Amino acid sequence: MQSEKITVRITQTGQTMEVAVYDKRADHIQVVLGEGIHSVKCDLVPTRNGQAFVGEVMGREIVYERSREQVKADLDKLNPNLRNSSRR
User: Taking a C-beta distance cutoff of 8 angstroms, is the pair 45, 31 a contact?
Assistant: First the structure.
């Protein structure tokens, strides 16, 4: 299985880095930084205006610069059956 990777920006230095996505929803993204025993999980939540996702890991702020609507559209594109499911 291929894991999804996204690019986040470290606000303090302006550097970008690729991180693995552990869980992705329209209102919450959980990513994993690093590999092996040195990996760290981080929760990214939408900003107040919904234009980006932000989180903090080891005292550093990281930003995923996609809006909540863009992430929701990505999820719908990956799994269209999830959007059309109904309760029984």
Answer: no
Q: Return d(Cα 58, Cα 5) in angstroms, integer.
A: 20
Place of tokens 């990214």: 44
Locate the domains of the chain by residue range. Answer: 5-80
Residue type, 58: M
Token reading at 25? 């929803």
Question: Model-level pTM?
Answer: 0.83
Q: Which two tokens stand for residue 48?
A: 């107040």
- Tokens at 3, concatenated: 């894991």
Condensed to tens digits (0 to 9), the pLDDT of residues 10-62 reads 999 999 999 999 999 989 999 999 988 999 999 999 999 999 999 999 999 99
